[in-house]
Amino acid sequence: MSDHKLFNSIKIGLASPEKIREWSYGEVKKPETINYRTLKPEKEGLFCEKIFGPTKDWECNCGKYKRVRYKGVVCEKCGVEVTKAKVRRERMGHIELAAPVSHIWYFKGIPSRMGLVLDMSPRALEKILYFAAYVVTRVDSDVNAIYPKQLLTEMEYRELKREYGDKFKAGMGAQAVKELLKQIDLEKESKALKEDLEGSTGQKRIRITRRLEVIEAFIQSKNKPEWMILDVIPVIPPDIRPMVQLDGGRFATSDLNDLYRRVINRNNRLRKLLDIGAPDIIVRNEKRMLQESVDALIDNGRRGRPVTGPGNRPLKSLSEMLKGKQGRFRQNLLGKRVDYSGRSVIVVGPELKFYQCGLPKNMALELFKPFVMRELVKREYAHNIKSAKRMVERIRPEVWDVLEDVIQDHPVLLNRAPTLHRLGIQAFEPVLVEGKAIKLHPLVCTAYNADFDGDQMAVHLPLSTEAQAEARLLMLSTNNILALKDGKPITTPSQDMVLGSYYLSVLVDEKQKGDGMRFSSYDEMMHALESGFLHLHSKVSVRRKLNEQDPGKLVKSTVGRFILNQFIHQDLGFVDREKDPYGLEIDRTIDKKLLGKIIEKTYKLHGNLKTAQFLDDIKNAGYHYSTIGAVSISMGDVVVPDSKPEILEKADKEVDKYEKAFRRGLISDEERYEHVIKIWNDATEELTDAVMDTFDPMNNIYIMADSGARGSKNQIRQLAGMRGLMASPSGRTIEVPITSNFREGLSVLEFYMSTHGSRKGLADTALRTADSGYLTRRLVDVAQQVIITEEDCGTDQYVEAKVFTDGNEVIEELKDRIEGRYSFEDIYDPKTKDLIVGANEMIHDEEADRIIACGIEKVKIRTVLGCKSKHGVCAHCYGRNLATNDEVGIGEAVGVIAAQSIGEPGTQLTMRTFHTGGVAAAADITQGLPRVEELFEARKPKGLAVITEIDGTVSLSKNDRKREVIVTSENGESQSYNIVYGARIKVKEGDYVEAGDELTQGSVYPQDLLRVKGPKGVQEYLVKEVQRVYRLQGVDINDKHIEVIVRQMLGKIKVVDCGDTDLLPGSLVSTVDFYEKNEEAKKEGLEEATGEVTLLGITKASLATESFLSAASFQETTRVLTDAAIKGKQDYLRGLKENIIIGQLIPAGTGVRSNEHVYLKEQDQRSQENISLLEEEEETEVVDKTI
């Protein structure tokens, strides 16, 4: 494995004409492709075998040399080298152009690089390049009427030529531009620009900075500006632009061949015209056409009308091949189709163990084919591989026995699309099943978000021993019990399992058969139950012992609860064992919430294997007893409360009261509307309470909702109470409620009113899925290079964690914010002065509880926002790994985890903008997914809040024309803020406000906050606001995920003054680079640069990343590559995407560089199965953490 790093870095630059000729294996001179009779490539054509290599392995064109023995021979007859045909995928050719042409990327991109170097406008350049104007390339010093780079029309040129003759030279087309580019002295230009920069301001300064950036880039990258003009064009290998024969004898060809053909045709025609000395005007037209055809080849449609093929379809140029979802980057480099995989429909497998999945026999045979064949030969069922293959294909009976043995201990990966987080791919041990459907364990459905209504899943087979070890040690479903977003169990039982547990543990008031009986042991009680003397709900006493010698004690509970406690660990801390050593751990009704807590405690105290066992037990008991409980729904279970008519009548009267007040003009229509909505909401609430009170605790519907198995209070309300208020298509609440419920049935009008909501719901879901997916993609891109790179960075930064509140409502408790983090300083109990947590130690569950019990309200914690690691972040700033509850290991890809944790619940967030029916402008607060996007993109929000820029006391002034808030600081300085009409003022006269506080309701523009409160203020605001959106929707996400993203948004510094460093004023540099350059300057006693932290939205931050491969594969591919080529950028492959693109192991997890000495020792007998992990220096335990 140590050999896996093929590259340390990858560099991109402009190709010089010499370089292009060096790559080439020969010049393509003819536009022909293949001979339509012989179907052989034409000589010197686009598919020529002499240039690109043979079409058949080890065979030259004329057939003189065949077979491997002539390897490397060049046929003297046809000139083709005898080699493998796959060289046609790598050998390039070239076209020598009769006239130079410009490269459209550098001339047409924004900003135009050619224009910046020459200090000419793109419009002027276009005139020159497309032969509409002359440009002066040389002029003698004694001529004053003409200056260099002057544009001349045909008439002006002729007149000047007559007047001055050879004293000046002018030209047109790419040739003239090339001469101008050659004349530029970059060093001199750079020096002059730096001097100009000193005294300039405004637009002029921006233009100079831009020019300086490009010129410096050329100097540093050693690219020559004239290389932006092409004399030679490379021809890509033929197998990458193939031509295939279709059934009807017709050919389908790649668009590139058409584009190349146009270039070659025009080039050949131009060469001929030049040879015969054609008139200038004809030659010029031909040169312009050549320029246009090269433009179309490189980037069709960038300038003018795109070249179209049959059916008016624009041809796909080289640029199109790279761009977008179907381009080279995203389709072939970042995602590939793999062998040894299959897909099928999933069905439920309740009989499976937690780590198993059912694999259809035929699919398993196909997947494990090579393994089965090897084993058949080994056991001498077959003599050679060929006959073994035949046996497998004919499905001989022996094959099945071998397959059974082969799949033992060979885990498979199951994946369900869309894979929104890493739990969308998990490993299982396969169990062969009949039929064609994959069987899935019911408890992993939540993680996959799978259901059995026709979902499909894909199976992948890890082949190498290392891959199997990783699948087993890291990806097995038993290792994925906790969700990444909040560290809570994701495998909580649902539906029938919850129902069964609830039914078992419920207390019934009525007398049951066998109440009051006593038993000497659990087995005796079960015997009585099986013999029919007891009911599951009978209240009995059973003697419980701590050990064999213990006389024990009679404990009273119900039969069901005794059964449940058999497989619940009795030391989870629900009961104080010092006071009550014999009592049942769980002696109450179990609902879904409590089950979640039990699983969490079991995991913390007993680890994942015991938890998996417990989950299987709960699953089996749940299914079994929900069957026995036989809960069903009938019309009779839906009880409408008797108080319904009077509640409605009371509400109607109230509404009438406000209607009258409105008609008399005492209140506005807006106020009336708000009152009506409130009255009906209150009435609905009252009725809901009445409905819940009417239910008998053993009512089937009540059981379902109360246990958390299915349905909610809201749904019961609609069944037995009233449907309540509905929203209109615009989102405004309709003030007439639906007073019927589903049991009574709706009237036609009520039915019609319901349809708006349903339609909106479906449309919303469709939009939300796409938006959420795009948000996840941007988050992954911005955070993919954040990896845990070291243990402790020793930072002096911290964050004061306190409760997040929104008015009086708590958004996030303090415990959620500090648990699993490292404390920045020693934390003492304020009363007893005992040390709770030392500095730089992790705050565990118990310590967090103690801190809160002591009444401490602010805790200084380490966070990734203050991490000083050069690349990635350190383990202490990150804190606990939520998936394992342990310290985070080095190499953990926390950036991707953060992106997935924020993106995955994104689909659950609502899309709507809440309308508080009324003054639309002020009160429309964006919420849900659009708000999250607005925050991460650092956009100016809708409903902008005014913030104060100074600390001070508030005074309000109102006059006819405007409302003002004036803030006066202690030193007498005051600032006034105009408040627009309709905005609600948040502060009162005499309030004290701090800089950055909101004066009106609404959302703050993060850029303003950065200016007023600095990076810390904006970090806290962003984390809090994102949390607010998710928490209000009932989604818990840990702060650290949001912090990782916010850290990336603030990772760049804008240089204000470059001092004596080589940074450019106005350029964006990474924080690390900025401080490094300043360190260097400081050491040499030079002036340091100054800069300000900038906040970039996630899209901008992704594109501003150090790695050009990562940025190019994200968005705006051509722009990123143009920029990178001119700057001669070097990609040090630190992120995940870059390494995937060039086909290396990613520098995370087991691919992390420090793990290169971890290797697998294959054992002789069963190398595939007996996996032992060895560590050279330390014991095996290390592997588990680092992997």
TrEMBL record:
Q: One Pfam family from the UniProt entry?
A: RNA_pol_Rpb1_1
Cofactor names from the entry are:
Mg(2+); Zn(2+)
Gene Ontology process terms (BP): DNA-templated transcription
Q: What is its EC number?
A: 2.7.7.6
Q: How is the cofactor bound?
A: Binds 1 Mg(2+) ion per subunit. Binds 2 Zn(2+) ions per subunit.
The catalytic activity, as recorded, is:
RNA(n) + a ribonucleoside 5'-triphosphate = RNA(n+1) + diphosphate
Annotated residues for binding of Zn(2+) 1: C60, C62, C75, C78
| Domain called RNA polymerase N-terminal: residue spans | 226-505
Keyword Zinc set for record: yes
UniProt GO cellular component terms = DNA-directed RNA polymerase complex
Binding residue positions for Zn(2+) 2: C793, C867, C874, C877
Per UniProt, the enzyme's principal EC class comes to transferase
Presence of keyword Ligase: no
Task: Give the InterPro entries listed for this entry.
Answer: DNA-dir_RpoC_beta_prime (IPR045867), DNA-dir_RpoC_beta_prime_bact (IPR012754), RNA_pol_asu (IPR000722), RNA_pol_N (IPR006592), RNA_pol_Rpb1_1 (IPR007080), RNA_pol_Rpb1_3 (IPR007066), RNA_pol_Rpb1_3_sf (IPR042102), RNA_pol_Rpb1_4 (IPR007083)
Q: Which GO terms describe its molecular function?
A: DNA binding; DNA-directed RNA polymerase activity; magnesium ion binding; zinc ion binding
- Domain of life of the native organism: Bacteria
- For this UniProt record, give its keywords in alphabetical order, as a comma-separated list: DNA-directed RNA polymerase, Magnesium, Metal-binding, Nucleotidyltransferase, Transcription, Transferase, Zinc
Q: Which residues of this UniProt protein bind Mg(2+)? A: D451, D453, D455
- Return the NCBIfam families for the record: rpoC_TIGR
**Subunit and partners:** The RNAP catalytic core consists of 2 alpha, 1 beta, 1 beta' and 1 omega subunit. When a sigma factor is associated with the core the holoenzyme is formed, which can initiate transcription.
Q: Which PANTHER family match?
A: DNA-DIRECTED RNA POLYMERASE, DNA-DIRECTED RNA POLYMERASE SUBUNIT BETA
Q: What does this protein do?
A: DNA-dependent RNA polymerase catalyzes the transcription of DNA into RNA using the four ribonucleoside triphosphates as substrates.
**Which family is this protein grouped under?**
Belongs to the RNA polymerase beta' chain family.
Q: In its UniProt entry, what is this protein called? A: DNA-directed RNA polymerase subunit beta'
Organism this protein belongs to: Urinicoccus massiliensis
Q: In the UniProt record, what gene is named as encoding this protein?
A: rpoC
